[in-house]
Amino acid sequence: MDKQNCSPTTNHKLSDEENFHTEDSAPSKHTPPSASKLNRNAKSIDSVKAKRNMSMCSEPDIEDCGDFLRKKKPKADNTTLLHRFRSKRGLSVTDVSKTEWCERQMEFSLLFEEWKNNECKQMDFGGGRRNNEAMKAGRNRHVELEEEVHTTVELKVKSREDEMAMKLLNFINGVNQLLFDGLTRELPILSFASAEGIWMVGKIDEVQMPRAKRDRNPILVETKTRFQDTVPSEAQRRNGRIQLMCYKYLWDNLVAHAHHDFPCKELYDYFELNPRATQSKDLQAACYESGFTALILGDVVRHYQNTCKRLPPSNDMLVLRYEFQRDHSVLEEEKVAYDEGWVKSEIESCLELWLGQREASYVAEDEQWKCGHCKFISECEIYTDNNSESTESFASDSSIG
Fold first, then answer.
1. pTM to 2 decimals?
2. What b/e string do you get for 310-347 counting C-beta neighbours within 10 Å, with b at 16 or more?
3. In this structure, which of 32, 329, 366, 380 has its CB flanked by the most CB atoms within 10 Å?
């Protein structure tokens, strides 16, 4: 039986961007009712976090792993990357942004994680110290920001249906906090991208209501922490914009289908969930604290849909904030105008790779400075040591979101 965190007003938290069952699966969080609604401290939202026993090892050096990439190339009968690595999990916004950063790196990372899980569970390797420290600092900062508005408690779950219910409840409570207090953080989002025919998942760093009372459209904010106190490169800005716009795309999809054609059946089928599965006692109590009764998963899904009905589309102006890791000072706050045509084309391009419609491409020639800090450089066919002057890397200097 897994232990998870839950409480009065809670947010569900998955690893890395936001995932419900993604490659970075980390503790999940659930968010009971808005603190204001429950006459609790308006600043307090209790988060539920799922804890799993996982065999962990530090990151192996690629050279120590031999030719795993060549051995693990998907066979023709091994279906697509989407089916192989995201079956019953959904494509995450992080998957989209990492694919845009470098398709070959994304492909290598999937194969490498598979290799580690299958063959490297008890091995201990060093390497990547600076990148690991930068990523850890970024994660810790996001925890700090979340704990400013949420409180984490433990909750027991016993099934996949409980896990899904907890994540949906985190969204419900996060929305309650947003509508009552004007701000929520680490908001999990699960949406059916109908145009693409896939489920996508994510975790929005921050959602805030506009100060102008005439504007009711919530503002989505992404906070990126940087190892160096420098402004990001254009490639890093572009990657952050894609991430933000994906969140808005998912949000607006939820709102658009909340009143009709809400994909309940598709949700149960894709994630292989039983809508009549009885929820654990802890989850039933958490739902009651959130203001509704839910004995089975279907009850939670219906309330999830009703919560979406209360929401307007998100604001067309998005905020991309860059912080210096050392002192949390704001290096830059970029206002990003939403471009639905552009982000849909990026998602479609990403899916071409994930659905096996084409091979992974390499980074453009003017962005090959990324290769200098890629851990898969020794396996990449395009790499040549050109003594790149740039020292920026996605993991260390760009947003650790």
1. 0.76
2. ebebbbeebbbbbbebeeeeebeebebebeeeebbebb
3. 32
